[in-house]
Amino acid sequence: MAIVVAFVSQKGGVGKSTLARAVATSAVRAGLAVKTVDLDPEQATITVWAHTRDRYKVSPSIKVEAFRSVKDALDSTRGEEFVIIDTPGGISDAVAEITQHATFLVQPASPSVDDLYPAVLVFRALERVGVSRDRLAFAVCRTLADNEASDARAYLAELGYTVLAGDIPERLEYRAAMNQGRAITEANEEILSTRAEAMIADLLARAGCAQLGPNRQAEESLSGAA
């Protein structure tokens, strides 16, 4: 059964598509069989980005499919082991449906209290309908200073929530990378790429993706040979 990671938020512009692009890129590079889903075909942020990536001939190519229905998206899987779902801003019926199928739900949030407080309310609402806390994680994004990131992490950790490693600062270099079809893990400045990679690696590990792909297959082959 595929691992399903969904990016959700009550607000738009907090980093869902940014992280979805980075996760898709890292997962494909790791040799996973990946399906990337855009559940916002009107805005089509991640779909347009994938087309831009192809236009700039950035490798590896990332295939994105747009759907209006979670059911249609999941029914369309054909043996992929990792499914990434980028949702529109807002907590809709579609997001409620995703919670029934997602292995791991990631909510990006800026360090502003205006974003953090509503974000916590979203996860509390999901918990009330039966989503276990170990399936939820915050990603601190759009930071302007290190103390902003540390304060946000401390606030969320004190409430008992998982916070992904590191943070994603607000930097023009990230925007320039995405404008050319690259992910934030592919920024021109190595230090920024490495910073983003730390968060994405943590996300993949927490979602259980270390059990997938070529490494797992190699282990199974060795086990069979033994």
Give a short synopsis of this structure:
46% of the residues lie in helices and 16% in strands.
Question: Can you walk through the features of this model?
Answer:
The protein has 226 residues and is of the alpha/beta class. The chain has one domain: Rossmann fold. Helices cover 46% and strands 16% of the residues. It has 9 helices and 8 strands. The chain has helices spanning 16-29, 45-55, 70-75, 93-98, 113-128, 146-158, 172-179, 190-207, 213-225; strands at 3-7, 34-38, 64-66, 82-86, 104-109, 136-143, 162-163, 168-169. Strands 1, 2, 3, 4, 5, 6, 7 and 8 form an 8-stranded parallel sheet that branches. Helix 1 (16-29) packs across helix 8. The longest helix has 18 residues, at 190-207.
User: What is the global morphology?
Assistant: globular
Mean pLDDT: 90
The portion of residues forming beta strands comes to 15-25%
Number of domains: 1
Order of helices and strands: EHEHEHEHEHEHEEHHH
Radius of gyration: 17 Å
Query: CATH superfamily name?
Result: P-loop containing nucleotide triphosphate hydrolases
What is the tally of beta strands? 8
Helix content: 40-55%
The parts where pLDDT drops under 50 for at least 5 residues are 215-226
Structural class: alpha/beta
Largest sheet: 8 strands, parallel
Which CATH first-tier class would you pick? Alpha Beta
Provide the CATH architecture.
3-Layer(aba) Sandwich
DSSP summary: helix tally? 9
